[in-house]
Amino acid sequence: MARAISTNRKALNTAAAGTLGFLMFFPILWMIVLSLKTEEDAIRAPLEILFSSGWTMESFGAVQARSDYFKHFSNSVIISLGSTFLGLLIAIPAAWAMAFVPGKRTKDVLMWMLSTKMLPPVGVLIPIYLIFRDTGLLDSRLGLTFVLMMINLPIIIWMLFTYFKEIPSEILEAARMDGASLREEVIYVLTPMAIPGIASTVLLNIILAWNEAFWTLNLTAAQAAPLTAFIASFSSPEGLFYAKLSAASIMAIAPILVMGWFSQKQLVRGLTFGAVK
Amino acid sequence: MKLKNAFFGATALVSVASTAAIAEEITIVTVNNADMITMQELAPQWEEATGNTINWVVLEENVLRQRTTTDIATNGGSFDIMFIGAYEAPIWGANGWLTSLNDFADDAAYDLEDIFGLVRDGLSADGNLYAVPLYSETSFTFYRTDVFEAAGIAAPTEQITYTEFADIAAKVHDPDNGIFGTCQRGKAGWGENMAFVGPMANAFGARWFDEEWVPQLDSPEWNAAITYYVDLMTNSGPPGATANGHNENRALFKDGKCATWVDATSAANDVRNPATSNVADVTDFFQAPKQATEKGTGWFWSWALAIPASSQKTDVAKDFLKWGTSKEYFEMVGESKGWVAVPSGTRISVHEDPRYLEGAPFAESIKNAILSVDPTDPSLLPVPYTGVQFVAIPEFQGIGNYVGQQVAAALAGQSTVDEALANSQQFAVREMTKAGYYNK
Asked: Is-contact B72 B88, C-beta < 8 A?
């Protein structure tokens, strides 16, 4: 039976949640405000910025005039989608094996995979850079897709493993009894049942790949640079380009923000999965 | 007629084919400073004239350093031209990572001798030129003429001491009316707070290393300098100064919040531009202060174009370098963007051009400040290194950043000056011993 909550308590909770939400959203809100100001207005005191100056879209035009947004955008889309789906191709069979046919060292393997996320990326920058140089993958979308796939693979496998563990193995056994091959079992029985889990894994990994800034900045130059490089190009050590930097940031995060908004149910489910087990 | 058409057609085809054969695509990596943005805007003229094309890669300064260092050290070949600073050029040149530009001296039209000798020397190693400058800068004092006048302070005509500077800052400090006596860099980093603190320490007679490369950060001179800095900023600076780097102080000064600011001469055209500054007509300049010595009291920096040894398109890259730092280029900037926007501290002829002197009345101050700097003799006591606000050795980045963090901690009151300098000395000793400069 659900516990009764008083109206006052409800209002208090709503106010607290609203305040927290506003505080978390404030940096993005402030970025939107600055992006709609001139460079001269953007450096004024906060209250002056809000109330005593005009609004303009000129920074967005200036950003697009100086840098090709759509090229960076398409690179971001290709790299984040590519790395996620490539990761799924490897992670689904791997997670299946670990969930349904665990070996003696399955737990160790899972922990080892997770431990690779604890390595500072800069520690392997030079070896990876040299490999990329020798294989001609520097500044290529293929190379970046591969690296981001490798980086996010442990998370994809862990998430899928957790989802697959929730599926009763008897269902797979029944499929096998009905004559399903291993491939058919994974594609026609396991995958459809795990679609909500796969969807939230895909969404989370697209976001992680979209926001990744270390490898995308260090392994690209002119051709494969995604939106992270687009934002970085408007930061200046000797000059004030806060309005343009804000406009570039808004343009970079807008697609993923919209995607996150529409898929928040799946995302929340994915991120909190297992919390009430 | 048919034969004639065929002949012209064939000629056109050969012409197109030969143009396509010689046209190259080069990649240039740069920071997002105003002079570089202007170069990007004008570069299509070079592309049109030569048939070559440019891919611009614009990065934040720290990212650019990391990215270019990785690429050049691994012979990655991602870039054909790099914008680098006076710190990297001699070190990378000596390592064989950059293409020598000595042949620029043979081009009479380019007139290499027209570039300030000090700047050329700063971008050379072992007598070889490895980069050509777009602009160069030193530091001087920006001050508010109206605030000085109201406080009855006469503008210094000769180099004053830091003690006198602190007195002035205290007199004009009026936070209740939104004016801070002085705004100086407090954000940690060898290119941030240490760019101000380094020359100030030189003025107090301090040095980074003695002749045997032994770190000197626990010396009384360093202690006096950092104690002065903390006192100055505590008594006459804005609150939360450890968050303020060049950009933040520039914003504060332009918004009329600072009475004095010792920083880059390259900010002068922005601060004196009425379209971008609230204090354009009430700002003037005097030399950065001295104390125990006048040596090394203004820093030296130059943003310059260099060609990594890994580039396969050296000839095209050299052609662009010559174009981007030629007399004609500076003239083109003056004519199209206004003479106030012409990069300063590079060519003698530009600093003698009446149009520039009229458009940028502070140009003479910049030139004099730059010519007063000697990176080969930066301190009161003898040193084994060159560089004013930095030491031109690869280990300096790490040491400079660490000392910058310690100084910022002292400024924030998280540690005492003694503790900050003791930690700095310990770190520097460890790094220099590890690098084999001396045995402790």
From this structure: no
